[in-house]
Write a structure and sequence with these properties.
It is built from 3 helices and 30 strands. The chain is mainly beta and about 375 residues long. The chain has a 4-stranded antiparallel β-sheet with strand order 1-2-3-4. Strand 24 and strand 25 form a beta hairpin. The longest helix is centred in the C-terminal third of the chain and has 8 residues. The chain is globular.
Amino acid sequence: MPVWSPDSEHLIIRGRLADDPGSLDWWIVPADGTAPVRTHAVENLAPLGIVHYPVGWIGNTIYYAAGTTIEGVNLFRVPIDPKDRTIRGPAERITSGPGMKIYPTVMPDGRIFFTNMTAEIGAWSVTARPDEAAVSATPEKLTKDLMQKFSPSVSRDGTRAAFIAFGGEKESRIEVRMKDLRTGQETAIPLQGVNLGNTVLSPDGSVLAYQDRVAGKLRSFILAPGAAAGREICEGCAIFGFFPDNRSVLVQTVPREIEKLDLQTGKRTAVLASRYPRTGNGSPGTPASRTAARPSASIRPKRPKEADRERSRSPRPAISWALPPGRPTAAIFIISPRRTGDARSSSGSSTPGPKGPWPKSARSSSLRTAGS
């Protein structure tokens, strides 16, 4: 989400230019509507991890979260140049270890409020009676391993499912899995690069489309019945769905156009063109794929009123989280820099002290909760 600068004159966001997919970075967006400024944080702080976004801006310091759901999402802080708005690093680690330190609130005195939670992202199924708008009360887990599951796809006849299994970015443990829901047989396709893009099954479940990052470039592949490996069909494209005969797919290569791609001849036919980017995973022949393209979201900064500025500089902690099935626990952590002049009681109250570098003696307290 966008983060306001201390003077409420700028926002820092994670995003990219509409016509340049390679411009993904943290950008400074002026409130007066002038051109945004690229910070080059993604380049200078690499590797950041799959998850990375700014969470606070105090003085000339940007606070951010980075990592993965498996290996941990942690909090960091890094200086930002007040003149050219460049983030050069190096960053300073605030938290470490597994767990997702998310939903943080950074206070002007250096305290940070955040939630520490463990994510268990699995692939599940429920028996449904569509004509009666009813589903069974007990979901069934499709896999028993501990890898996180993303980007699910189900064939229209309900016989097969596909998804991405992710076991960590550092060891590059990532694969596409296709499972026969009738027999339970599962096929794994190792991926070369870390990418959590779409998996798309054909209507009859016989053909699978997926993405992989090879030599730094995003490529799309088709796995035909009986094939030992996928066949590359396009570079830098996204596959949204199959046509009923499985001979053509709906693809997007440029931001403002959807095309029909013949898998045998490679011929492309424009299906939808718009001045707005079109994204999604609709399949041909469904109402969703016949709708007009919708405009992409844009940020239009609006300065807070003078009366609200002081409140915006001293935000109140806002804590929320999603709890997975079972009885998981989530911990709310408060980090307070411990410096000369600080007083912190056992009840967690704190009197702020002078600002300075983050000390190794910073203390934390937690409030642990459980949910069903």
